[in-house]
Each structure stands twice: as C-alpha cells, then as structure tokens.
Design goal:
With about 300 residues, this protein is of the alpha/beta class. It has helices spanning about 25-40, 50-60, 80-95, 115-130, 145-150, 170-180, 210-220, 225-235, 245-250, 260-270, 285-290; strands spanning about 5, 10-15, 20, 40-45, 70-75, 105, 135-140, 160-165, 185, 235-240. Strands 3-4-5-6-7-8-9-10 form an eight-stranded parallel sheet. It has a two-stranded antiparallel sheet with strand order 1-2. Helix 2 crosses helix 3 (about 80-95). The chain is globular.
Length: about 300
C-alpha cells in the first residue's frame, strides 16, 4: 500500500511513483501498465522525455479511472514565457489524453533566462487558479533560485524535484524546501545516474555500496528497496525509473519493513556532495533550445 504525502495546498500525492526518464517511447506504455498493475498510482514524465503519449496510453490500458492516477509532467525551457507555458499545458494534456494535470512543474531554473522562468511560473499559477492543474512546482531549483522565484510570485511551489540519492543528498536544498513548505522529490533516487552507461565509467555505483548491501541483507531486501525506503521514511517523494516489470514491482515492495534510525543515519553518512547530473546553475543553450513538438 503506497503512502500518501500532503502537498502545501492540501492535495495528496502518492509518495512513490514511476519515473520514465530515458524510457524509450516503445517501452513506456508497457512500463506504465506494469507499474499500475503493481500498485503504483503516480507517474512522472516530462515534455522533454518525448514519451507523454505513451504514458497516456499506459494509463488508459490499465483500466483505472483517470482520477485514480496522479500524473506529473514538466514544462521544457523552450516553452518558458507566459503564453508559451500556457500552450505547453495544451500540448501536455493533448499528448497524455487527459483534461487536467495533477502536478505541473518547471523542468529547470534556466538561470540564463530567469525572467522567462518567472513568467512561466506565473502561467502555472494561472493554470492552478483555473483548475487545469491541481498543484504546481519546480525541478532542479537550488536555494537561490527558490528565493528569487518566491520574491516574484504568489504561490509557493508544492514540489521541488532534484537529484537525490545516498551519494548526493543536497541537504541545503532539502532545508530550503522544508523551510518554505515545499516537498522534496528525488529523481535518480536509487543513484541510477551514477551507473547509466556513458555517464563516466569512473563513477561508483550506489547499488554496490557495502553499507547499503549490509542493511539490505539484514532486512532480506535489495539495495534499491533500502534506498527507496530511506527516502520514504524521511518524508520525501521518490520516482525510481525502470522498464523491467520485475524491477518495477520490486521497487514498489517497500512497505513491509522499516529502517532503524541508525540505519537511516548510515545511509545519510554516504553523502559525497558530488553531483552526477547537470548543474542547474550552468546554462545549456543548445539543450534548452530543443523544440517540444505539438503532438
């Protein structure tokens, strides 16, 4: 049974969701179906992933009512700006085949065009006020980005989705989120980005960490299950990604054990303070310019 988190506007969200970053479109529909069959009720996607239509297909194929699935997606930087972001909502709901979104967030702070980022967020506020989204938020925002956003807008983000796993826990971002009543959501929650092919072979795989392996053995669980449980017990949302049905089900099987305070502390102590994903303070003009198609 998935645990629920209450967002700062009273909307509830399943704490554990399926992420579909880097899931090929042809694999995404089946992955979403497998997740919903396993008990997930929260799917996280993004315009930039190119698989929103397949997420929608998977939800429809599950036979579940739309209201029983929490759908989260993201606006890409090329659609920042007030009118452009309103249109990004049109594109997202069209591809997903739904009439509203549960959570709509900005994918990057895009510091090289932060005025457009602010305008995009103001469009999210309008969508929220009109009931076209149930909650709004951001992704990859550092404390200084949050401070600037909060000074220029009216609605505090419900969620800040950031890279967060045992080797990179971002305590200062978590503290800024907590201080402002923003839920921290972990992408790469089991350290996937530390062992994706092509991301640098010198990176150490969190899944092979001996401290996590020892905790996993003690509970007769896998390292991935220990990491997911660590997030949930500390009040975060986690969105592990997989297209393997057995792994998807395994990642959801985390509600029948509990980590002790010393075990939580042991995982916390693994933080190396080294980011593996893109630095949110570094502009990526070519990537930011990627055009999100209409359909």
């Amino acid at each position: 049974m998935n645990s629920e988190l209450t967002l700062n506007n009273g909307v509830t969200m399943p704490a554990l969701g399926l992420g579909v970053f880097q899931s090929a479109p042809e694999e995404t529909t089946a992955a979403v179906q497998a997740a919903l069959a396993a008990g997930y009720r929260h799917i996280d996607t993004a315009a930039a992933y190119g698989n929103e239509p397949e997420v929608g297909e998977g939800i429809r194929a599950s036979g579940l009512d739309r209201s029983n699935v929490f759908i989260e997606t993201k606006v890409w930087v090329s659609d920042y700006g007030y009118d452009q972001t309103l249109h990004a909502w049109d594109k997202a709901v069209g591809k997903l085949g739904v009439e509203y979104l549960d959570l709509f967030i900005l994918h990057q702070p895009a510091p090289d065009r932060f005025d457009q980022t602010i305008a995009a967020y103001k469009a999210l506020e309008k969508l929220l006020s009109e009931g076209r989204v149930r909650a709004i938020g951001v992704s990859n925002f550092m404390p200084h980005h949050l401070k600037e956003l909060l000074a220029s807008t009216d609605v505090v983000p419900a969620v800040n989705q950031i890279e967060l796993h045992p080797y990179f826990t971002q305590p200062e971002v978590q503290a800024a989120d907590a201080e402002n009543g923003i839920l921290t959501q972990a992408w790469s929650p089991i350290g996937g980005i530390t062992f994706y092919p092509g991301w640098g072979e010198e990176r150490q795989n969190v899944m092979e960490d001996p401290a996590i392996a020892a905790i996993a053995q003690a509970h007769r669980k896998t390292p991935a299950q220990v990491m997911i449980r660590w997030h949930l017990q500390q009040g975060r949302s986690a969105i592990p990604k997989s297209t393997n049905p057995a792994r998807i089900a395994e990642n959801f099987n985390v509600f029948d054990f509990e980590l002790s305070s010393s075990e939580l502390g042991a995982v916390d102590a693994l933080d190396r303070g080294v980011r593996n994903g893109p630095d949110p303070d570094v502009a990526r003009p070519e990537r930011f310019a990627m055009v999100i198609p209409e359909a």
